[in-house]
Amino acid sequence: MSKNILRTINLYKKYSDDYVLNNINISIKEGDIYGLIGLNGAGKSSLIRLITGLTAPTNGSIELFDGKSQNLSIRKRMGAIVESPALIPSMTASENLEVHRLVKGIPGKESIKHKLSLVGLKDTKRKKVKQFSLGMKQRLGLALALLGDPELLILDEPTNGLDPVGVIEFRELIKKLNRERGITILISSHMLSELSQLANRFGILHKGRLVEEISIKELNEKCKQHLLIKVDNVNRAATILENELKTNEFEVKHDGTIKLYALLDEVRQVSQSLTNNGLIIEQMTPMGKDLESYFTSIVGSSNNG
Amino acid sequence: MGNLIKSEFYKLTRSGVFRFLFTVPFISAIILSLILNLSIKDTLSFNLGNEFSFISDSGEIERSLNQITLFKLTVIKNLPTLILIMCILAAFFISNDFTTGVIRNTILSGTSRTHIFYGKLAVYILGLIIITGIFPLVVTVMGTMLFDFEGESHYSIFLYIGRSTLLYLLHFIAISSIFMLVTMILEDSGKVISMTLLAFLLLTVGYKSLDHIPLVSTFYEYSVFNQISFVFTKRLTPGEILVSIISGITTFIIFTFTAKVLFQKKEIK
User: Fold this and answer.
1) Which residues form the ABC transporter domain (chain A) (predicted)?
2) Domain map of chain B by residue range?
């Protein structure tokens, strides 16, 4: 079983009388790409600020790297972009990296060239950061975060301001870092469709509370387009689907319903086969949604609750 | 801590404001030394005794030059000038880290806030010393090379310059710690400059109208703002030296400690 890289335990953050984070318990396993989803003001950035030590929690604790040590220096194993990349505008890309290299005490300057090359900024040479586009600044922010080869990378809305091509390139780079270097990544975004292509686990934050923590597998299962069928004899219905309709793309659930993932455009044929075999159909409903609809439904129900 | 200081020094030396504040007095010092030299040798039509003369602190005309005169005359004791230089560097070297968010990167790197604070303060003070020290240093060194000084023995020159410089530095550092606190409170570079100058103006006006009150005048007399120029008095008694040292150290400890506590509790934007 992979170890916890990050775990928050009953985390609270209060400003004046308002709790911006309320009893947050999340856990991120080694190798995860964890997507933090939430509307503006949901508490994503506040949570990231607590994790990165920019602010202190009102209550609760944060365990990093399996909770082995709460020493400050453990944060050297992390890299982060919080809110927007923090850069010195009057310096070049490599000078900005040099400042951070010196702070971290990383020997040699090769790491600077390497990181600039990794994020596609090796040709910026003497160009000052103030002349960079927003996308270039985001890339440089990522290079800064990657300096020192962190085990945990925390990215707060990293695709803000990137054009569509930039978003795709950024996504591929994140995937590559996770796949090839095994970097665990916590990424927050309001671009849910983007996160759904990147993360393997999600935490949905709403009004400072963690509404749901869900894996991509569970999410796909919940969001996958299917026909929800409820009949009076579920075993017989399963046999008919296999033998007569020649599909095994269905699941028999514990509640006696069937989730049929195939033949979605042939609802009439499915219903006809079942009724022709004497089954009584109590329900046959097309189900499934994308991440955004799922998120909206979760947040909506949370609002109603 | 060593890594932090290296990083801060790297930032300082690449700061355009620092380079400007360093270059101007450096070039001015060389030009002044050459003008003085040429005028003494009557190559230029200056005459130190008549048209070209220095006014000392006491208002007397200095007709002869030696290292002490040069050093005394060129060290920045003028409070408004010092405050202007200190607040400009504080605004561009410290505040900018808050404005750009660069301070976040340092915190994210897993360095303790105490170390970050002291690293920043140390390099800020070092930067100020370089900026303000370059002018008297270059003038005095060039003066020694160019002029044939007579009169004072090297021992008394060394003693005077050494004692004055150390006491001056102590008060200089104490005033710098006040700016560190101001920057920690205000963060924004524009606010640091405008509020500091406004506060200085109000305090000056306030002091002028209240200096007849013994408590106010005594407080000012022992404050670092007065002591920084007082230490250049030719003869200081051991008692005066002790008072000066206590004034500088107390101010430094109070303001540095307050600024550090504030930074440790600060919510970094």
Assistant:
1) 6-232
2) 2-265
Asked whether B101 and A156 are in contact (CB, 8 A), the reply is no
- Between the CA of residue A136 and those of A19, A128, A154, B165, what are the distances in Å? 35, 11, 18, 48
| Chain A with chain B: Cβ pairs closer than 8 A | 74
Contact A159, A167 (CB under 8 A): yes
- The whole-angstrom separation of Cα A241 and Cα A235 is 10
Q: Give the β-pairing of A257-260 and A250-252.
A: antiparallel
Per-residue model confidence as pLDDT tens digits over A102-134: 988 888 888 888 889 888 888 888 889 898 888
Beta strands A27-29 and A201-206 are unpaired
Q: Measure the CA–CA gap between B37 and B142, rounded to whole angstroms.
A: 9
**Do β-strands A209-215 and A201-206 pair in parallel, antiparallel, or remain unpaired?**
antiparallel
Q: How many CB atoms lie within 10 A of CB A201?
A: 21
The DSSP symbol for A90 reads T
Return the amino acid letter for A184.
T
Q: How far is CA A16 from the centre of its chain?
A: 30
8 A C-beta contact, residue A44 and residue A156: yes
Residue in A274, A250, A275, A244 with CA at minimum distance from that of residue A262 = A250
Q: A237-258, pLDDT tens digit by residue? A: 899 889 888 888 888 888 888 8
Q: Say if the Cβ atoms of A80 and B15 lie within 8 Å.
A: no
Choose the closest CB to B16 out of A78, A90, A95: A90
Q: What are phi and psi of B111, to 5 degrees?
A: -95, 145
- The total number of residues shown for chain A amounts to 305
Q: What is the DSSP string of B82-137?
A: HHHHHHHHIIIIIIHHHHHSHHHHHHHTT--HHHHHHHHHHHHHHHHHHHHHHHHH
Helix (H, G, I), strand (E, B) or coil at A23: strand
Cross-chain residue pair A54–B108, CB shorter than 8 Å: yes
Q: Is B99 on the interface with A (CB under 8 A)?
A: no
Angle, vertex CA A171, rays to CA A204 and CA A107, nearest 5:
105
Helix, strand, coil percentages in chain B from 3-state DSSP, rounded to 5: 75, 0, 20
Predicted confidence at residue B162, as pLDDT, reads: 79
Rounded CA separation A12/A59 (Å):
5
Contacts of A110 (CB under 8 A, 6+ apart): none
Check if the beta carbon of residue B157 is closer than 8 Å to that of residue B66.
Answer: yes
pLDDT digits (tens, 9 = 90+) for A72-99: 778 888 888 888 888 899 899 999 999 9
The ipTM assigned to this model is 0.75
- What are the DSSP calls for A170-188, one per residue? HHHHHHHHHHHH--EEEEE
Q: Is A195 helix (H, G, I), strand (E, B) or coil?
A: helix
DSSP element (H, E) containing A302: helix A291-304
Give chain A positions within 8 Å (CB) of B7.
Answer: 99-100, 102-103
Q: What is the mean pLDDT of chain B?
A: 80
> Choosing among A65, A77, A102, A153, which should be mutated to test the B contact, i.e. which has the most B CBs within 10 A?
A102
Residue A183 has pLDDT above 70, yes or no: yes
Would you say the pTM of this structure is higher than 0.80? no
